[in-house]
Amino acid sequence: MRKFHTFTIRNDRQFIAFTGVSEQIFETLLAEFTRCLHSARRQKYQKNRKIRQRRPGGGRRGILATAELKLFFILFYLKNYPTFDVLGGMFDLSASKAKQNIKKLLPILKQVEKNLHVLPHRHFHAPANNPKAIPEKEHKIQNIIIDATERPHHRPQHARKQKNYYSGKKHAHTLKNTIISDGDNGIIAVGPTAPGRRHDYALLKTELDPDQAELSSVDVSVDLGYQGIRDRYPNFHRINIPHKKPKKSKSSNPTLTPEQKKENRAISRVRVGIEHLIGDLKVFQILANKFRNHSISMADQVVLAIAGLANLKNDYVVQ
Of the candidates 37, 92, 278, 309, which lies 20 to 30 Å from 225 by C-alpha distance? Predict the structure, then answer.
């Protein structure tokens, strides 16, 4: 049994329901979170030391008095995504103070994940070939999977913004991110957050440089949303993309051959790994429910921080 403010958590199942992580992972986060919190306080003190009127630690103690409670607070928000009014009522804070604490603690959580080597990169860079590598290991091929994930977004009032955020695929206003995985329970990179109108492949073209010579050591698997990837990225060692069913207007027998169906199933068996990882992200309700915050920067920080939590949950280290 563990107590946080007014919450009493009786078992690990209940702990995961409140925070999205197990108690063991919480303890791992807490040790580094405490160090990062102290470091942030020291930096703030050094920055404002000339205008301070009190010693560090002076004044009234806040409601979120301990590092443990602060970490529980930010994880509870990401997992359950209550409004700031509800969140403040649960922790005996005003709505504005709850919002301030979220904005203050989210960058610290990201720094914790970076120190633990679980925070994904913003862009994918293929590993450079090592000239001193052992000959039989010199041409080792890296396997990656690329997909995009969408999450609901509140309907903007401005007509131009409405059009920009409207996703024809989802028939709703959304935000979108490119997710790159190595297929081994880990997220390597999370692309910048973009409005839902952007096509999956159009996003990739702005995020991945096709001229990287190191791409020759990478095999990539994608879905049918990335038509044309072979033309733009010829440097990839191999591109696995499913066969598209021919149109009736261009074929008298618009079906795939048994060999093509077999190849599509093989690609799907590889790609299902990234679907599971995206499912790990959507466990956190802030990525599953309609995003109410108006800041795109906030939306971008949230998806990156949760991807880091997913990597930590899957015991994956980002190289």
Answer: 309
